[in-house]
Amino acid sequence: MIKPETGAPEAAQRPMRADARRNYDRLLVAARDAFTAYGADASLDDIARNAGVGNATLYRHFPSREALLDAVFRDRVQTLCAQAEELLGRESPHDALVTWLRALVVHVTTYRGLAAWLMSTATGQEQSPASCQELIRAAGKSLLVRAQQSGAVRPDIGTSQLLRFTHAIALATEETPGEADQLLSLVMDGLRMRTAPPPAFSPSDPSAG
Q1: Quick one: pLDDT at residue 17?
Q2: 125-168 tens-digit pLDDT
């Protein structure tokens, strides 16, 4: 069972005055447009300007770029989590995991630069349990563990490693999204549980190249 979301951005938890809510919503719209057009490194100054507010207002609602990205992507991440929950009931644990990873790649490649940002922060400081990255990690872990328990995926791969593979695929195919599915298939083939050791390499084998 995927652990449900336990929190939300601080600004969204506190009751807001009507004018503060309008500013918050305008910032989200401007940020979503900017991240779509310019990627995860879009200028925060430009986002504030396009929302019609000052920088101080932006940082009052979103203390960091990560907080703003979390708020912008939260709806989509919650959809991914709900999809993972549904896929837990699928007959084939391997197919369920692959289906969800495909959806994750599509989500990450929607915003240019998001894959690079996710990879750069994946090994950084511990995230809040309610952060988008932790929600994705929890969803992916539930599907990965089920696939491993079924014998479909080798047991020596962790959730963080699998997500790094997925983010790397998204990064490599930002300009050629049609190649993402093939790369994901290659990665998943390498993660399958092997019932027999691979054949020994023979220098005399003409197919060895």
Answers
A1: 86
A2: 555 555 888 889 999 999 999 999 999 999 999 999 999 999 99
How many residues are there in the chain? 209
CA distance 118 to 76: 15
For residues 168 and 183, what is the distance between their CA atoms, to the nearest angstrom? Answer: 10
Mean per-residue pLDDT, 78-93 = 93
Report phi then psi at 192, rounded to 5: -65, 145
Is residue 153 helix, strand or coil?
A: strand
The percentage of residues in the chain with a pLDDT greater than 90, rounded to a whole number, is: 52
Q: What six digits make up the tokens of 164?
A: 């790094």
- Return d(Cα 9, Cα 33) in angstroms, integer: 20
Instruction: For residue 97, give the H/E element and its range.
Output: helix 93-109
Instruction: Give the separation between CA 134 and CA 39, rounded to whole angstroms.
Output: 21
User: Over the range 68-84, which residues count as b (16 or more CB within 10 Å of their CB) and which as e?
Assistant: bbbbbbbebbeebbebb
Residue owning tokens 């019932």: 195
Give all domains of the chain, ordered by start, each with its CATH number: 13-63 (1.10.10), 65-194 (1.10.357.10)
pTM above 0.90, yes or no: no
Name the residue type at position 45. D
Nearest of 155, 161, 159 to residue 2 by alpha carbon: 159
96 DSSP 8-state letter: H
Contacts of 107 (CB under 8 A, 6+ apart): 73, 76, 77, 80
